[in-house]
Design a protein that fits this description.
- The protein is an alpha/beta fold.
- The protein folds into two domains: 189 residues, NAD(P)-binding Rossmann-like Domain (Rossmann fold), CATH 3.40.50; 168 residues, N-(1-d-carboxylethyl)-l-norvaline Dehydrogenase, domain 2, CATH 1.10.1040.
- The protein contains 17 helices and twelve strands.
- An eight-stranded mixed sheet has the order 5-2-1-6-7-8-11-12, sandwiched between helices.
- Helix 6 links the parallel strand 11 and strand 12.
- It starts with 5 loop residues before the first strand and ends in a 7-residue tail after the last helix.
- 47% of the residues are buried.
């Protein structure tokens, strides 16, 4: 039995897969979901049936399955938050009264600014526990829920950058979390994990530009294979260039989406279209069945909106990203700029690049007058 007690917060596609995979390797796992009906069958069975891309199966027997956040957190050393970024504020507020000194919180992933916003919410809720908030660049698995107590993992990434807030704590965190997932590697700081956000590049553009096909077929096509045509790949390339330019303006050397696919999945191509099609982990993943999906309501306000805000703050042309935000607002009838992660919600309003860097590296800010 592995001795690191782990709480998994969220029982969606990712949370169920992570909880099952960890439990199948004998980690003590506490699975929390705020809606008990979604985990009732898991509780009755005592765990989750898990299948893998290579055909083998496993059963993850869970220590606790609960809708009580206090029970989930009590005694957990590592807290894996696996919910859409739209839920980070609510999770942070729910956790705040129950967190204990020494716990490590991992946002899987943080999207853009997740750790910064999570810390701000804990502060606003008067949380005094000495915890370390970290964020992963993306989610370790390509996975799907296959039933009430079943999950499937399509592929596992080769490596996954992770950073603590502040970055001076990252080595301490990695000494523990690498025992859970050796794929975790150190990112320089949370600006790197936040700006190397590939969901921002892939998810909104693919969903918005395939909206007609999604609505006509209810998602009955391969999202990354059929949905990435040469012209749509050009839009992805534009969004990717804007993202990496925002990062460069902030002193962050972000990797391109093509380089990321090579590192994460060993998928290579001369351009983004070819690299996506060369990734076996994307084959078999269908499109969303509706455009009212987290690829819009999560990735637009919690990925594209903060990247655009940083671009505007530091003088970068982000018209491609702004166009996608406009389309999402029109299609959903929602003001995602208002709902999304602003500089203020991330605790960055009015800060210079130097001040932001100092804050994420050492947790100190000496704001200029």
């Amino acid at each position: 039995m592995n001795t690191i007690d782990i709480a998994v917060i969220g029982a969606g596609h990712g949370g169920k897969a992570m909880a099952a995979e960890l439990a199948s390797r004998d980690f003590p796992v506490r699975l929390y979901n705020r809606t008990y009906s979604k985990i009732e069958m898991i509780a009755e069975r005592g765990g989750i049936e898990l299948s893998f891309w290579d055909g083998h199966t496993a059963f993850g027997k869970l220590k606790i399955t609960t809708d009580n956040i206090a029970d989930a957190l009590d005694g957990a050393k590592v807290i894996m938050v696996v919910v859409p970024a739209s839920g980070h504020c609510n999770v942070a507020a729910a956790c705040a009264p129950h967190l204990q000194d020494g716990q490590i919180i991992v946002l899987n992933p943080g999207r853009t600014g997740g750790a910064l916003e999570f810390r701000q919410v804990l502060h606003d809720n008067n949380c005094t526990a000495d915890v370390i908030i970290t964020e992963a660049e993306t989610f370790l698995f390509a996975s799907r829920s296959m039933g009430p107590a079943e999950a499937h993992i399509f592929r596992r990434k080769n490596t996954l950058p992770l950073a603590a807030l502040p970055a001076s704590k990252t080595p301490d965190v990695l000494r523990i979390v690498k025992e859970i997932y050796p794929q975790f590697i150190a990112a320089r700081n949370v600006l790197y994990t936040s700006l190397d956000n590939m969901g921002a590049v892939f998810h909104p553009a693919l969903t918005l530009l395939n909206a007609g096909w999604i609505e006509h077929s209810q998602g009955e096509f391969q999202f990354y294979v059929d949905g990435v045509t040469p012209s749509i790949a050009q839009v992805l390339e534009r969004v990717d260039r804007e993202r990496t330019t925002v990062a460069m303006a902030m002193g962050v050397r972000a990797q391109s989406a093509t380089a990321w696919l090579a590192r994460a999945y060993s998928a290579h191509g001369d351009n983004l279209h070819d690299a996506i099609h060369a990734n076996p982990g994307y084959h078999g993943i269908n499109a969303p069945s509706t455009i009212h999906h987290r690829y819009i309501f999560e990735d637009v306000p919690y990925s594209l909106v903060p990247i655009a805000a940083l671009g505007q703050r530091f003088g970068v042309d982000v018209r491609g990203i702004e166009t996608l935000i406009d389309l999402a607002c029109i299609m959903h009838g929602t003001d995602y700029r208002h709902r999304g992660r602003s500089l203020a919600r991330m605790g960055l309003e009015g800060l210079s690049i130097e001040e932001i860097t100092r804050m994420v590296e050492t947790n100190t800010v000496h704001q200029s007058n």
